[in-house]
Write the structure tokens for this entry.
Amino acid sequence: MVLKRLIKSIFHALSGVREWSETPSEKSLQKQEKAEQQHNATPAEQEILLDAPKEEKVSEIHSIWEYIKIRDNTQAHHLTSVIGFEWVEMREIRRRIKEQFGMEYMNERSLYPYIKTFTDCGLFESSDVGGTRKWRKKEIIISPKGEEKKPAAPIEFKEREKKKEKDNGTAKQE
């Protein structure tokens, strides 16, 4: 019985995919309309249509480092501020921290757990060549998938009151 239900659900899902693939999308309809426009246009209009600027989607690209916020004056903050996108040794990291923040760590071992955590998370890259360890920030690029939502137009006070009354009226009737 269980196997039979499983097979039925798989076939049902596949039939849904088939139906979805057979329905024309909006983009294909737009392409068909443009092709018909170009086909029915006079030669002068065709030149104008060909010379018209094509709509290109400009996607924004951001680095993940623009969005990561680390608490100030912590070891993690010191490390992310000092380590850039070039390979850096521990000696250089300690020197930069002393130079930028005026702090000196007595024991460099206290920085290793933070570096290891960033490396395990995939935010830092590590290299161990010739017996010296080096680290750098990983270049992680992100791009937003959806468009930003525009805020709704402001609603007048009277309209808000009417909406509240309408909502209260429907709630009482239920």
